[in-house]
Structures are given as C-alpha cells and as structure tokens.
Amino acid sequence: MRRRFSMSGTAIMYDTTVVPSKKEIAQAWTGYVDLQGSYRLVDTVDGEVGVEVLISKDREGRLLQIPFSYRSAEINPEQTLSTLEHGVLGKRWVTNALGDPVAVREFIRTILTGDDGAARSDGVKGYLDIKGSGDAESVDLQDVKLTEVTRQRAIGSVTINGERKQFSLRLPQLLKNFRETAAGHTATTLRIVATHPEKDDVELLVAEFNWME
C-alpha cells in the first residue's frame, strides 16, 4: 500500500544521554564545532529514521549545517559517521543524512509540499524555522536511489506519483542569504529557506532541489 505524504509531524525527544555526544561526532566529521541548535524532519512513512541537521558556528561566526540521520542498523558503511549509545533506544548508527535515502526523501517532500520542519515532543523550537517553497498538496515518493553523495549534495532517482525521475538535492554547508549566494549561482525555485535567527532581514538558503530531466 502506498502512502501519501503531508505535514512534517513531531520528532519524539527523550530525556536521556547519548555517548559519544552529537558534538563529538560532528567535530570528528567537520572539525571545529560551536553548536547552536538544530532542526528536524521525521520519517513520515515508518517513523524509524531520525533526521536532524545540527547548526554550528565556525570560527568566523558563520552558520554551518551538519546533516545527520539516526538508524537502528547500518545502511551504507561509506556514509556512516559513527555509532552512539542512546539511553533509551540503544545502539544507533549516525549517517550523513545526504547518504540516507529516507532523509533525502523527507527533504524532497518538505520542498515539494512547502512543508516546515518537524515539531519536537518536548516543545523546544528548532534553531531554524525552515519552510519549503513548493505548493503540492501531497506527493507519493517511492524508492529513492542515490548514485552520488557528498557532504553537500545527493544525486539520484525517485519514483514520484508513479513516474521515475532523476534529481539533485543540495544542502549547502555554509548558510547564506539565498539572494547573495556564490557569484554566478542562482538559487532554484524549489528550495528550503529559513529566517536567520539573529538577523530578521536575512533569509537563509537551507536546501535547493532540481529535477534533472
């Protein structure tokens, strides 16, 4: 049975410990980390995969994204960043979210439907209040296959509403005003944006998406 996706849902939070800490895992992957918070998406199909993007400041005070997914079993050793021991859920595999088909599906869904980030069960607001730019009432996304993965980009294919299509998803590590991205680069129409938490007049480019056919 196929499911229709809509609304971002609620991420279940636990008052417990994780070892090693998320900061330690992020430091091992990216180097210097000054964590500010995070935003989350949820697995809208099975509820099994956690999706969290940590937000850090670099040494110059700029905001950076560090995308994680959390699973009960490893899916791809090449994209595994670490394991951790969760006080409630037990052993979890931490993965580069752009190398996790479920996380990629949820980013695509959020963009295409104009959804926002997941709420948290503990009531704490995400560090970024993200919003997709699409206007689809719902989309049927099936069978994400990834052919190229980096720290900032996932290229692959997905079946959307019964049609197989190629895509490119980019999560820039450095968060910038989407109107002031790199020279010669124009942000795509399909994207996720968020207001800068310290500068109300700055809208950050969080993710951008392209169909490749």
Automatic annotation (TrEMBL):
The keyword RNA-binding appears for this protein: no
Coiled-coil spans in chain: none
Classification via InterPro entries: Mak_N_cap
Location of the Maltokinase N-terminal cap domain: 33-100
Recorded GO MF terms: ATP binding; kinase activity
Keywords of this entry: ATP-binding, Kinase, Nucleotide-binding, Transferase
Keyword Nuclease: no
Annotated protein name in UniProt: Maltokinase N-terminal cap domain-containing protein
Superkingdom of this protein's organism: Bacteria
